[in-house]
Fold:
Amino acid sequence: MSRIAATICIIATLGIGTSFLFSHTKKFDAQEIVQDSSRAEKNYANFCAGCHGEKMDAFVDRRWKHGNTDKDLFKAIKHGYPDEGMPAFEKAFTDKEINELVEFMQKGIENIKRYEFSEPNKSNVYKHESLSIKLDTVLTGVDVPWGMAFLPNDDILVTERGGKLYRVSKSKKAVTIGGVPEVVAEGQGGLMDIILHPNFKKNNVVYLSYSKGKKTDKGVLATTAITRAVLKGNELVDHKEVFEAQPYSRTRHHYGCRLEWSKDGNLFITVGERGNEKENPQDLSRDLGKVHRIKEDGSIPADNPFVNTPGARPSIYSYGHRNPQGMAIHPKTGEIWTNEHGPRGGDEINILKPATNYGWAVTSYGINYNGQVMTKLTTKEGVSDPLLYWIPSIAPSGMAWVTGKRYKEWKNGLLVGSLRFKYLNLCTVENNKVIKQEILLKNIGRLRDVRMAPNGYIYVAVEKPTAAIFRLLPVKG
Ligand code: HEC
Structure:
C-alpha cells in the first residue's frame, strides 16, 4: 500500500538545465497513457513495455547489443532477434509505425546522453543557479575514498575502500591509522563507512563498516561487518565486532554499509542484498537486503520490530532493500532517510519506517541490465512506494541534509552524490516531498560521499581518477 504517493521524477525528459522539476503524485496509469499520447508511445506501452519495462527511458539506458542507430533499431523491431527472445514486428506494424517507434526511442537515448557531461571543469569554481561553489582540496592521492568522520579538533577521518584509514589534519597533512581490520578489497568491497560514537569526546570510540572475509572449502566468502574500536593516538585498539551480516556470500558487490545514529542513540546500518535478489531481500531470516538497528554495544533494542517474530533476525528494522549507500537523519523530524541503487532506472529515496517492506525485488521502477523486465510491478499492497525515483539511474551514494547558515540558498536541501553521472544532486524538500532538483559540481568525478561537518561546511569525497576530498566554499555575489 502506498502511504506516500510516489513523487516521480523523470530527469531524462528534462535535459540538463541547472534546475528541473517534473513530479506528480499520481501513479503510472497505462490506460491514461494509451488515451492521451502519440501512436508510438501507445504502441510502446502495448507491445514493448511487457518485456522492456514501462519506462522506455530505463530500457534505452543500457548497453546496446546490436547498435542504436536508426537503422539498427528499425531492423531489431522489424525482423526481431528470435534466438534472443526479441519477436519480429513486421506483421504487427507498418514501416511507418516502426519508424515512429525508432524516433520515440531515439528521443529517450538522446535524453540520457545529455546527462553524460563531457566538459570537465578546468577551474575550481562551479557556477550554479542557486549558489556557486569554490572547491577547497583537503586530501588527494586516495584511490576510492568511501566515508568521512569529523573529529572534535576538526581533523577528518577518511576511509579508503582499499583498506586504509587516514586522519587529515587542518594543515591538510594525512597520516594512516593503524589497527584497521583486514578487508576483502575486491569488487565493491573493502573498508567502507566510518562514524564516531555519540560520546566520542569522552570514549574515543569509532565504528567501521567493511567487507569481512571467511575462508571456506568453497573459497573466500564475504559479508558486511562492523567493528567498534577505540582511537588511541593513530592506532585503533580494543576492537569488538558489533555486527556481522548473515549469511556470508560468494559475490563481491552490494554490501550497503552506511552507518548513522538515530536521535534516540541507536546505530542504523544498511546492508545490500549481495546480488541475490531472489533469496535475500524479502527473507527475514537473512540479514541481506535490510536496514538494521542495534545499540551502541551491538545488542538488540527491545523495541525492534521483529524481535518477537519467530525465525526473523532481531536486528532488522526494514526490508526489501537492494543496495542502500546513503543515509541521513532529518535534522528536524529525526526520520531516517536513505537512498539506494536500483537496477537500470529505479534508484530510490525512502524514509524508513519500522517493519516496512521497500519492495525489492517484488516491485521496482527499474529493469534488468540486459534490458528485460525483472518485475512488472512498480507498486503493491504491503510495499512502501519510493518517495522519489530516478530514471535514468544516477547511482546514488552518500546523503546529507544542508543545515546551518553557510548555504542559505540550499535551505531544506538534501544532497545526494551521483557515482554514474559524476555530480552532486541537490533535492529541495518540503513536507517530505522533493519539490525541486538541481545539478551541482557537474562532472566533478564519481561522487561517493557527502557530509555536513560540525564546522558548518559541506565535504564531498570523489573517487579516482579525481580521487579527492573537497570542502565546498560558498562564493557570494
Ligand atoms: C517477448 C518479449 C519482448 C517484446 C514484446 C519486445 N521485445 Fe525487444 N527484445 C526482447 C529481447 C529478449 C531482446 C534481446 C535482449 C535484449 O537486448 O534486451 C530484445 C531486443 C530488442 C532490441 C535490440 C536491443 C539491442 O541491444 O540492440 C530492440 C531495439 C528492441 N528489442 C525493441 C523492442 C520494441 C520497440 C518492442 C515493441 C514493439 C519490443 N522490443 C518488444 C524482448 C522483447
In short: Helices lie at 30-36, 39-52, 56-60, 70-79, 95-113, 200-203. The chain has two domains: 28-113, 125-475. The two ends are 47 Å apart (CA to CA). Residues 292 and 316 are 4 Å apart (CA to CA).
